[in-house]
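Thread: Newbie trying to understand structure tokens

Hi all, I'm a second-year student working on a class project, and my supervisor (Dr. K.) asked me to get a predicted structure for one chain before our next meeting. I've only ever worked with sequences, so writing a 3D structure as a token string is new to me. If someone could post the tokens and maybe explain what I'm looking at, I'd be very grateful. Here's the chain:
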Amino acid sequence: MTVPSQDRPLRIVHAVRAPVGGIIRHILDLANGQAERGHHVALITDSLTGGDRAAAALAEIAPRMKLGVYRLAIRREPTPADLVVWAQFARLIAKLMPDVLHGHGAKAGVFMRIVPRPPGSIRVYTPHGGSLHYPTSTWRGQLYSRLERLSMNRTELFLFESEFARAAYERMIGKPDGLVRCVFNGVTAGEFDPITRAADSTDVCYVGEFRHIKGADLLVDAISRLRNHGRPVTLTLGGDGEETEALKAKVARLDLGAAVRFIGHVKARQGFAQGHLLVVPSRGDSMPYVVIEAAAAGIPMIAANVGGIPEIFGPEHRDALFAPNDPDAMAAAIAAALDDLPAARDRAKLLRERIFLHFSQKAMVEGVLAGYRAALAQR
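---
Reply by user tm_fold:
Sure, no problem. This is what the structure looks like when written as tokens:
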């Protein structure tokens, strides 16, 4: 077997199920960075989700993907149709002959590690939370844990985006035999530009998907508690997702229609401009881009103390974190931050410097490529 030289472009295939949220942001940034360095890259993703936004993002990057962009009908839950998808993956890999098969998230991570691989290639896995969010006490957690264990020994390189994700994987699944690297998500230089707050900004804003794990409903509860205690706090919710209608119904049920506005999906920086304070209420997260993006832009922010979020803030900024899954703790943290916004802005300036040093797109791309090279050398 001949190891690809440092000078030869690598043939890299990235696969992910749903082309939405931070995971596709990560993959697009990574694929762009790899293409800029002369590597030949392909993307495989689901055709059933993402809508027009995903289609536009994939169309934009397609001219730079020398190996192509492919969309398959990949369903979220395990189904008999997965056998058809597996065969489609196998045909694509046989056609593209990649050096690197990089699966992102649970579903694509399994597919990329069980298809026949070209001689001398490596299989790479980044969980992005994925199956690690399902407790092993549930049947889904048991199923996904078994699939993870079956795939673990078919993986030459594990790339975790946080030490939290690495520790969670080892605790829930086991210690990998393959090479293990931790490479933080990163942002581009333009994301450090300052943001001008909107003239009609509310006290608090949220930017992200409306999914249970993201905790927007907890934030609505916290706003309700503050207003019930005489604080007329207002909130802008920027995003959409599977819980949009349930969230709107909750706002109506709590009689918060005058205090909470929905602005739909917006780009992160546009959403950040809608409030004096960004709140990240997640029930669980590995290395959320919204936190890194807001920190890079110098946005005053508080966040739930979960997953890899403390790694972004660092030990010197832990006072900006509140207990997760607790609307009362969140409400208290919001009140404290709004009572002293100058201190929150000063903390944001210091956090911005930390992001500049440790969370750049360049460092992310180079770290991932270094992991590929090391794993290929071991092959």
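A couple of things are worth pointing out once you decode it. The mean pLDDT is 93. The chain is about 45% helix and 15% strand. Feel free to ask follow-ups in this thread.
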